[in-house]
């Protein structure tokens, strides 16, 4: 039994470079869309964010959880306005870049330049590009290469991580 387990593990370890080379070829790199805007990052303890947010929003924003598909009222939001980070209220997306992706999460073709930070995510084995609010670090979602032209990007966002402000209404002051 030990020998069989050893051989099985050895096979997995020997094939990992092959699989990882395949994944590297399919990685999606986010290209800069516009000139970068400087956003000063906050250094706020998570316990303070927890006090400002619902438990569900905190899990999504600061524990990198994902809400259930189709659960956000923002999926059906079609008014003009701006989408803010639900934690610090930094504007992240303009409504003119929102579209119906059919995925069950609010989706956008591009963010507001300089307001998003990206990193690689390997939680599902294949690498993905995860993005966060550049100010508070709150997890927003993932960006994929299956969006509409001209950029071909789908910025798939958790609705709990966003706050929508309709055009004409005043945007709340940044928190932090």
UniProtKB/TrEMBL annotation:
One of its GO terms (biological process) is response to oxidative stress. InterPro entries: Met_Sox_Rdtase_MsrB, Met_Sox_Rdtase_MsrB_dom, Mss4-like_sf. It is an enzyme of class 1 (oxidoreductase). Its EC number is 1.8.4.12. One of its GO terms (cellular component) is cytoplasm. The keyword Oxidoreductase applies. Keywords: Oxidoreductase. It catalyses: L-methionyl-[protein] + [thioredoxin]-disulfide + H2O = L-methionyl-(R)-S-oxide-[protein] + [thioredoxin]-dithiol. Residues 46-167 form the MsrB domain. One of its GO terms (molecular function) is peptide-methionine (R)-S-oxide reductase activity. This is peptide-methionine (R)-S-oxide reductase.
């Amino acid at each position: 039994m030990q020998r069989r387990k050893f051989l099985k593990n050895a096979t997995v370890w020997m094939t990992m470079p092959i699989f990882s080379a395949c994944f590297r070829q399919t990685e999606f790199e986010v290209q800069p869309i516009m000139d970068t805007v400087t956003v000063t990052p906050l250094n706020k303890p998570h316990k303070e964010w927890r006090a400002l947010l619902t438990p569900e929003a905190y899990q999504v924003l600061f524990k990198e959880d994902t809400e259930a598909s189709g659960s956000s009222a923002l999926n059906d939001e079609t008014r003009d306005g701006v989408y803010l980070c639900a934690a610090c209220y930094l504007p992240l997306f303009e409504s003119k870049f929102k579209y119906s992706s059919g995925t069950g999460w609010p989706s956008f073709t591009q963010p507001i330049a300089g307001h998003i930070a990206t990193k690689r995510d390997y939680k599902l084995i294949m690498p993905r590009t995860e993005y966060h609010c550049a100010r508070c670090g709150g997890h927003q979602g993932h960006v994929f290469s299956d969006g509409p032209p001209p950029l071909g990007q789908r910025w798939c966002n958790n609705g709990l991580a966003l706050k929508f402000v309709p055009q004409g209404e005043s945007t709340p002051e940044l928190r932090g």
